[in-house]
Amino acid sequence: MEIVTGLTTTVSKLLQFSGLLMKNDVPGTKNMEEKALEVYDVIRTIRDPEKPNTLEELDVVSEKCVEVQDLGDDEYLIIIKFSPTVPHCSLATLIGLCLQVKLQRSLPFKHKLEIYISEGTHTTEEDINKQINDKERVAAAMENPNLREIVEQCVTEPDDY
Description:
With 161 residues, this protein is an alpha+beta fold. It contains six helices and three strands; from the N terminus they run ααββαβααα. The longest helix is centred in the first third of the chain and has 17 residues.
């Protein structure tokens, strides 16, 4: 089976290189694009913690900020790179927490999740990236009733009220 998979990949790359096969026609690419759109549909409606807009409306998230990779065994790696509205945004960690919570609750398939601030869009992106990808910190944050209430307000769909 491994030999067949390797051969299929090699043939696809050769056909793509020769121009006989477009990138979107590569086996599995379309499925990953569909998964990425499914992920984007979940996060685009998250509300900003301090503005009456969604993350999509503020360009904090977009379709191109979502990447999905197949890990095998029907499991996927989801990578989100979001862009805070200003480089010193004090709520970037909270936005990352909202992304974590909404995706963990909403996705119908097995996944691993990595959330990052887009490179160069925040003054403390490295520290925030560590915080929002640390499962223990996320769990501890969600134990705080005030923080949990804010997250719930941000991730609840308008028609869920």
